[in-house]
Amino acid sequence: MPSFESSSAYAAFAHNVVQRARYVRDEASDRFLGTLAAQAADRVETLPTGMVLWRAALGHDWRDETDEGYTFQVPAPHPPSRMRPLSDRAKEGRANPKGIPVLYLATRRETALAEVRPWIGTSVSAAQFRLVRELRIVDCTKHEKPCRRIFPGGVTPPEYWDANNWSDVDDAFSRPVTPSDDGAGYAPTQVLAECFRAAGYDGLGYASALGEGHNVALFDTSAAVIINCGLFDLKRIEFGFEESTNPYFCEAEV
């Protein structure tokens, strides 16, 4: 089985796709994708028919209620049609370009809710989906622990290259995004997803940076059916911060 050409092969690939050429790639990028597809066979996870996963969407619908002759509207979960990706209006995503829908799910409800990035007071609709057939996905979380230490000469030994690159792939899919992010930032992971699809896989799994569960992106949006949907309100958020660089100091004015 081929190995990656360096510890930073994914970083070089991502740079080329974002900054240089997206649709006609250079030989190094094609070799990276070839290695990725070959090694993906050892990272296949089979999801059984009937497995239940979660999907969330910001906002809610309305339903009519009647009390003592008065009819009024109250919040209700989104209908099933809204909880599925729109076939003609798919937005840019980690695993799909604009216009090509992918069904994004999560293994835990809390993970699905967190992935839509709600703010306090926001209502979120969360639905359970059941798989209608057995699926084979590439589990990007299935890799050895990467080695990030600095080696003499700054060169990472080859025995760590594969683990480091798969860790970078998983991190790329997991990285939180905001509506203001440049769509070009999705390009590397979109190409990776197309590589997995072309190799015959049904989707991919990747870690969540916002919850303990995993995310699952399915290429066939009809591979799962909705079985129920509820409405949730975000009540609190916990923040965790780490200082990323040294502070600077200013002399007090006299």
Written account of the structure:
The protein is α+β, with helices and mostly antiparallel strands. It has one domain (9-233). It contains six helices and ten strands. It has helices spanning 9-19, 27-40, 80-83, 109-115, 161-174, 187-198; strands at 44-47, 52-58, 61-67, 70-76, 103-106, 123-131, 135-139, 203-207, 214-218, 224-233. The longest helix has 14 residues, at 27-40. The radius of gyration is 21 Å and the shape is globular. The N and C termini lie far apart (68 Å).
Topology of this structure?
Elements: H1 9-19, H2 27-40, E1 44-47, E2 52-58, E3 61-67, E4 70-76, H3 80-83, E5 103-106, H4 109-115, E6 123-131, E7 135-139, H5 161-174, H6 187-198, E8 203-207, E9 214-218, E10 224-233
Parallel strand pairs: 7-8
Antiparallel strand pairs: 1-7, 2-6, 3-4, 5-9, 6-10, 8-9
Number of domains: 1
- Determine Rg (CA atoms, Å): 21 Å
- Tally of strands: 10
Largest pleated sheet: 5 strands, mixed
Strand order of the largest sheet: 1-7-8-9-5
Low-confidence stretches: none
